[in-house]
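Protein data:
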Amino acid sequence: MARNVISRFIDAWASFCLTRRKTVLAALAVVTAVTASQLPKVYFDNALETWFIDGDPALVNHRKLLDTFGSDELVVIGLEAPDVFAPEVLERIELLLAQLQRLYCRD
């Protein structure tokens, strides 16, 4: 019974769309234009604070990370050397790390 009702509705809707195709296309164009005019107002807030309640341990830790480093952006630096554990390579890594900390870490 329900299948019959749905089938009749689909047939009626298809018949309506085919017999009044210009009206249907005009209505779709108006709906599309109105919807598209609202796109500049759409925004996404993907900040962590929107996903956690205040006091959540993960959020507290994230805020500590931001206080320490000033950002939660991540940088990965690759190193190529014959022996990455050689003293002169480790000294250069330590020097680079100190320079990066001076530039980007908050005290």
Observations:
- The mean pLDDT is 89.
